[in-house]
Design brief:
about 550 residues, alpha/beta, 6-stranded antiparallel sheet, 15 strands
Length: about 550
């Protein structure tokens, strides 16, 4: 709801501030008084582009600020959160235009761009002006009208859930197919690499252990010679070390009673003798084990050569890393076998979701088709009431080739203004005044079901008078019971239904003419409506007629 509008330095408006009713607001005034200027200023905070010619004074900025009460409008609050804008009960939109023509826009004092402003404004204000391209000609709005009348929001929600799940399943299936294609391309190469490693049949740490063994065998003769010499000197020489130590031990042992330190020294000599004998035995054992084996050396060389080629090929340094690569390749090869099963499972799931979505789409179509004739009949009846007796609306619901987020229907509102039986899309044939009245008729039918924004009808009364104007007023009044409606009008019948009646007039200030606006009291309304009925000097009959309009 638009609570307040502040305008400064716009066209011939010096400064005005207006508080609005939450129901039916009527704006009247003589032609040229500035009603269209008022709507032009409002359009700036709705995201329209700036025309620098509207700047009244070039030495100061132009300001237009609207204060909106957003109440429970979830779409508005969601948009504000998504755009990182403050969510408050009151929403202040401000547009500033500098003398150089550059403009800035703010939402709750946070700068926004024009696209953000346009998106937000469509949720707040529905402005219908002569010759505008209106949402009435847009397929999404036309679908919303049928859906609102069908009252199948729960079915639509179920369908959109199934459709989203099906789309997701289709995307996952496509990814699996791409993986399979990639796996298939790589399969032969991976199979070759795996077979190579499998045939090598490497064991954990095998290459490292083989390398150590090869070093031992390659030096076996030298090692054996050294061990033999050590063993000979320890146990078998002309004067073996073990025997010499035993002899020295015996010689010194004869004097243990003569010196207190000798027993401990002899004990140490005995330990050395035992250790030296043990070393001699170990040398002999090792010597027996070390054997030069040319055949074994050749086998190890072949094994290490094979292993080193694989290490170099795969760019790694250890047997363990090769074994990890082998396991990875095996998993990839297995994945190729498993992915067909995964694809089949996903195809089945996607098919089930498609079937569910198709069934729900069929329900949506059936519900929409049921509403076509009642909508046509009601709108065409209302069109007669609002002064368009020759105009007719036709609603076409045709199937689409594929499912879409809103179903499988192409919905088109067609219009014939002159009983020519040549129905054309609304956006192509309806004039501005016809569109406004047609929109009023349609929105009055769906007002209880759609969360409509503030509705503004700019000169919806073009080409009508008398009873047609009265019927337009009745429809507007009914529409305004649960939402805010504005109408700029020249018709007294419409003005008489106002909850708040604003009068736009020109005022001479100094040497210039300014546009002003004021909220009329009941008596002022009666006078203003009487002037609309009979001229600048209303007759007593006109005043009485005007009083009856206001009181009723």
């Amino acid at each position: 709801m638009l609570k307040k509008l502040f305008i400064q330095n716009y066209a011939i408006i010096d400064e005005i501030e207006i508080d609005f009713s939450q129901k039916l607001n009527i704006i009247t005034g003589e032609t040229g008084a500035g009603k269209s200027i008022l709507m032009g200023a409002l359009s700036l905070i709705l995201g329209d582009r700036v025309d620098t010619s509207v700047l009244q004074s070039r030495d100061k900025k132009c300001y237009v600020e609207g204060t909106f009460e957003i109440g429970e409008k979830k779409a508005v609050k969601t948009f504000l959160r998504e755009q990182d804008l403050d969510v408050e009960e009151e929403l202040v939109i401000r547009r500033e235009i500098g003398s150089n023509g550059k403009s800035r826009a703010f939402v709750n004092d946070t700068p926004v761009n024009l696209e953000q402003l346009r998106q937000l404004s469509t949720m707040l204000v529905d402005l219908h002006r002569q010759f505008d391209t209106l949402e009435l000609g847009e397929s999404d709005f036309q679908r919303q009208v049928l859906d609102a009348l069908a009252g199948h929001a729960d079915v639509l929600q179920q369908y959109q859930g199934a459709y989203s799940q099906w789309q997701k399943a289709q995307q996952e299936l496509s990814q699996l197919q791409q993986q399979k294609d990639q796996f298939t391309k790589e399969y032969d190469y991976n199979k070759f690499l795996f077979d190579e490693l499998h045939e090598a049949a490497l064991k954990e740490n095998e290459l490292e252990e083989a390398d150590a063994t090869l070093k031992l065998l390659s030096n076996a003769e030298g090692i054996k010679t050294a061990l033999s010499k050590v063993g000979y000197e320890l146990s078998e020489g002309e004067s073996p070390m073990v025997q010499q130590l035993k002899t020295l031990y015996n010689q010194l042992g004869a004097f243990t009673d003569n010196h207190p330190a000798l027993p401990a020294l002899l004990q140490r000599m005995l330990s050395v003798q035992i250790e030296l004998q043990d070393i001699a035995d170990e040398v002999e054992r090792i010597n027996d084990q070390v054997q030069y084996d040319p055949r074994k050396i050749e086998q190890l060389n072949d094994r290490i050569s094979t292993g080193y080629k694989l290490l170099k090929k795969h760019g790694v340094h250890t047997t363990q890393e090769l074994l990890v690569i082998k396991d990875t390749l095996e998993q990839r090869l297995q994945a190729v076998l498993n992915i067909d099963e995964a694809i089949q499972t996903k195809e089945n799931a996607a098919q089930q979701l498609l079937q569910k979505a198709t069934e729900l789409a069929a329900r949506l179509t059936a519900n929409r088709v049921k509403q076509v004739k009642p909508l046509q009949d009601k709108v065409n009846k209302l069109l007669v009431q609002v002064g368009m007796p020759n105009a007719r609306l036709q609603v076409d619901v045709t199937p689409l080739a594929n499912l879409h987020m809103t179903g499988q229907d192409n919905i088109e509102f067609l219009f014939d203004a002159n009983k020519s039986n040549r129905f054309e899309p609304i956006r192509k044939v309806a004039s501005g005044g016809e569109l406004s009245r047609l929109m009023l008729c349609i929105k009055s039918l769906v007002a209880q079901s759609l969360d409509l924004p503030t509705l503004i009808f700019d000169e919806i009364d073009t080409g009508i008078s008398g009873e047609a104007a009265k019927q337009v007023a009745i429809i507007m009044k009914d529409l305004a019971r649960k939402r805010q409606v504005f109408s700029i009008t020249h018709q007294p019948q419409i003005a008489g239904k106002a909850d708040a009646h604003y009068f736009v007039y020109k005022d001479i200030k100094g040497n210039s003419i300014k546009t002003s606006i004021k909220l009329l009291s009941q008596e002022e309304r009666i006078t203003a409506i009487a002037k609309m009925l009979s001229g600048e000097k209303p007759t007593a009959a006109a005043l009485e007629n005007a009083r009856e309009m206001v009181m009723n």
